[in-house]
Design brief:
By secondary structure, the chain is mostly helical. It starts with 13 loop residues before the first helix and ends with a helix.
Length: about 180
């Protein structure tokens, strides 16, 4: 393995490495015949390297997900909340181990990934309860719960009332119980 000192551009992206190489090569060629151009090219190369030094010396965002990872995790959870989603599935989507992901997720979102997943499932269930005539059993399955009983226990623990009571209390136009069975 090569040390960073042996290859000073090892951490530069390929496009920046090419730009830097062109600037230095151009400055080297222009040094004797056009000192002003050489000086300008060296200044541009120096600015590129200074930006990289600032990036490398910035304090790391330890313990948190990178912004792209947080977006990917949120999107992955929302797109898969209709199935029995596990934390390891979300961790794989952002290319982290489940253990590190769990810690970083909590640092980034202020709650565990498991709690976040459950909250997103309940939010979807609430939406379905208000916008469809689906039975609670159907909604439970559509939101990734194993059955209606599991859904009712989880919903009651999080919301403080049963799903059927919540549905009745929040519908603008109450649906008759007989219509729900149909």
């Amino acid at each position: 393995m090569t040390s960073p000192d042996a290859n000073p551009t090892a951490s530069l992206p390929r496009d920046q490495t090419l730009i830097l190489a062109r600037l230095v090569t151009g400055a080297s060629r222009a040094f004797d015949r056009d000192p002003d151009t050489a000086r300008e090219l060296v200044h541009r190369a120096s600015a590129l390297l200074q930006a990289e030094v600032r990036r490398l010396t910035r304090p790391p965002q330890t313990g948190k997900l990178a912004p792209w990872q947080a977006r990917t995790a949120r999107t992955f959870i929302d797109q898969n909340r209709d199935r029995n989603l596990q934390v390891r599935d979300v961790a794989a989507a952002v290319r982290l181990s489940p253990s590190y992901f769990s810690h970083a997720f909590k640092q980034s979102f202020g709650q565990s990934a498991k709690c976040y997943i459950i909250e997103r499932r309940i939010a979807r269930a609430k939406h379905l309860m208000l916008t469809t005539r689906d039975t609670l059993a159907h909604i439970a399955l559509a939101c990734g719960f194993s059955d209606q009983a599991h859904f009712c226990r989880t919903f009651g623990g999080l919301v403080g009332q049963t799903p059927s009571r919540w549905r009745r209390n929040h519908q603008e136009h109450p649906i008759e119980p007989a219509a729900l069975a149909a």
